[in-house]
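Input (Carbamate kinase):
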Amino acid sequence: MRILIALGGNALLRRGETMTAENQRANVRVAAGHIKEVAVDHEVVVAHGNGPQVGLLALQSTAYEEVGIYPLDVLGAESQAMIGYMIEQELGNVMPKDQQIVTVLTMTVVDANDPAFKHPSKPIGPVYDKETAERLAAEKGWTVAPDGKYYRRVVASPQPRNIIEQKAIRQLVDSGVMVVCAGGGGIPCVYDDDGILHGTEAVIDKDLASAELAVRVGADLLVIATDVEGVFCNWGKPNQERIEQMHAKDALNTQFAAGSMGPKVKAACNFALATGKRAVIGSLEDICGLVNGTHGTTITP
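Output:
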């Protein structure tokens, strides 16, 4: 079976942790161990988030005043390479020695007229308390929004329309290579009126891009791995309850938090409806159960 595993940000950095290379490496090592549980028996493509990392790079770039702040597409490319390197290396340390693993720098095409550019919504960078977030927003011209009990910078998150390297990725997977790609939803790019491709100031939702890629590489299952056991009704309340299964059309008509579970459910629905196959949302620690259908929340067509 061909499985695309979309790693949530918790696979790289847990909430409240300092964003050091050591912490990220330790979390990736744990994630690689879980991925191995299914990768030894299935074809696996790994996608991942980059919100904290690309935000940190953007913040660091403001400290060097002699050079202007690097655009988000360039920072996205930097974070893809950094995270892909860690995932590729740690997977190589646990997978059979003859398993080839490569990281593909991935560009994702978006529409230059996507309304998301006028309504920033994608969290990036570290979390802040309200006072600090408001101060940084005033100083740097950021848009900030709540993220749980904290605040984070938010940027435009347009819909993925195409993935430039999709054919190359599929060829690699067809030949038995394990591929790490579409990091952070891919590097956001647009075509101008002359048909020239160039980067744009945005961060694409990792789950929506992963669903798009899963369709295009012929995946049999999309696994959206996060830090909770699945999708819950009455989340955060004493009567919260995990939803074991949802039909895609019903799920699309149900409201979920826009900044957290909403995009994951939408991505799972997109894949299920496009392919007639199932997607599952749940904890990476339960990866075998997610694949076998005994854990998480399954979205069916």
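The two ends are 18 Å apart (CA to CA).
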